Amino acid sequence: MFDIIFMSYQESNADENWKKLVDRFPWARRVHGVKGLTNAHIECAKISRTSMYWHVEADTIVKEDFNFTYRPDKWNRDVVHVWRAENPVNGLTYGNNGIKLFPTEKVLALEGKKVTDFTTSVSDKFKAVQVVASTVSADTDAYNTWKSAFRECVKLQSGLIDRQKQDETEKRLEAWCTVGRGPHGQSSIDGANDGKKYVLDGGDVTKINDFDWLQEMYYNV
Q1: Cα–Cα distance measured from residue 6 to residue 197, given in angstroms and rounded to the nearest whole number
Q2: Looking at the whole model, is its pTM more than 0.85?
Q3: Are strands 60-62 and 126-136 parallel, antiparallel or unpaired?
Q4: Which fold has domain 3-136?
Q5: Could you give the dihedral angle defined by the CA atoms of residues 27, 24, 117 and 170, in that order, rounded to the nearest 10 degrees?
Q6: Mode of pairing for the β-strands spanning 93-94 and 80-86
Q7: Gyration radius of the chain's alpha carbons
Q8: 102-125 confidence digits (pLDDT tens)
Q9: 3-state class of 15 per DSSP?
Q10: For residue 173, which of 187, 159, 184 has the smallest C-alpha distance?
Q11: pLDDT in tens, 15-58
Q12: Are the CB atoms for 60 and 136 separated by under 8 Å?
């Protein structure tokens, strides 16, 4: 079985989601508080004891019927696998914030490199697994909800996500920009529209992995 690695930074529900994960899967490991998104991913790969590892974000709740038992055959061990995630705020279900299966050596090879969309940078081989494995729980407060929407919509509007299909991208962007459910739904809509506008105004998309900059953006928008 491949390692399960949980990556957290400043998410307010990180400890709660970590407990849910480790209660079911006691061998899971955690990387916490590493500054810089690429640096944090590299640290996950460094503590992996297996040739591939499961990557779980801190704002992810794993479905009760998902058990991390999938094993690709030997010809697909260099492929990035991404499972689908439900987003209750906008009703979308796709790979955003989804559970991933990363080839460990491919992730380690990105050390020292500047990466914007990490998942699609790991390998030129990518598989979208059509199984819903988790629920996104990024809407814990106004800022984190805005941040999640802003980052994703910068990627969608800029075409940053490698191999994305334009018709799907447009539908997803429209949903992000118009649908917001729950107590922080408006923050999600605002973040989505701010992200879209940021790209249209010629903003530097590489900044979306700088969480200090994102915080400044939020309080100055």
Answers
A1: 32
A2: yes
A3: antiparallel
A4: Spore Coat Polysaccharide Biosynthesis Protein SpsA; Chain A (3.90.550)
A5: 160
A6: antiparallel
A7: 16
A8: 999 999 999 988 888 899 899 999
A9: helix
A10: 159
A11: 999 999 999 999 999 999 999 899 999 999 999 999 999 999 99
A12: yes
